[in-house]
């Protein structure tokens, strides 16, 4: 992907690392919307067909709900 910085998993916050590990294990996921289609309505990610991207919750410390942090994955393994 161009324009999006690449980092190693170890450089990410622990909450993101936890979400990545859940994805790699195939779940179970803590929120019903985890794994649903991400529509990329903001157009921040490269244009792909609908269904290419999936979204997963990244827990927000101190939040009492799902929060707004998400990890987006692509069908080819991009994260």
What's the helix-strand series?
Answer: HEEE
Largest sheet data: 3 strands, antiparallel
Strand content: 15-25%
Could you tell me the mean pLDDT? 91
Number of helices: 1
| Percent helix | 10-25%
- By secondary-structure content and strand pairing, the structural class works out as alpha+beta
User: Strand order of the main beta sheet, please?
Assistant: 1-2-3
Rg on CA atoms, Å: 13 Å
Please report the distance between the alpha carbons of the first and last residues. 10 Å
Number of strands: 3
The parts where pLDDT drops under 50 for at least 5 residues are: none
Shape, please? globular
Structure description:
It is a single chain. By secondary structure, the chain is an alpha+beta fold. Helices cover 15% and strands 15% of the residues. The chain has a 3-stranded antiparallel sheet with strand order 1-2-3, covered by helices on one side. The longest helix is centred in the first third of the chain and has 12 residues, at 14-25. The protein is globular, with a radius of gyration of 13 Å.
Helix/strand layout:
Layout (H helix, E strand, L loop, with lengths): L13 H12 L10 E2 L15 E5 L12 E5 L5
Brief descriptors of the model:
79 residues; alpha+beta; three-stranded antiparallel β-sheet; 3 strands; 15% helix
Please summarize what this structure is.
By secondary structure, the protein is an alpha+beta fold. It has one helix and three strands; from the N terminus they run H-E-E-E.
């Amino acid at each position: 992907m161009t324009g999006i910085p690449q980092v190693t998993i170890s450089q990410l916050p622990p909450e993101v690392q936890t979400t990545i590990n859940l994805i790699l294990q195939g779940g179970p996921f803590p929120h019903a919307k985890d794994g649903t289609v991400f529509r990329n309505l903001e157009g921040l990610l490269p244009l792909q067909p609908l269904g290419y991207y999936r979204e997963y919750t990244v827990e927000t410390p101190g939040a009492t709900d799902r929060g707004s942090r998400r990890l987006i994955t692509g069908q080819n393994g991009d994260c």
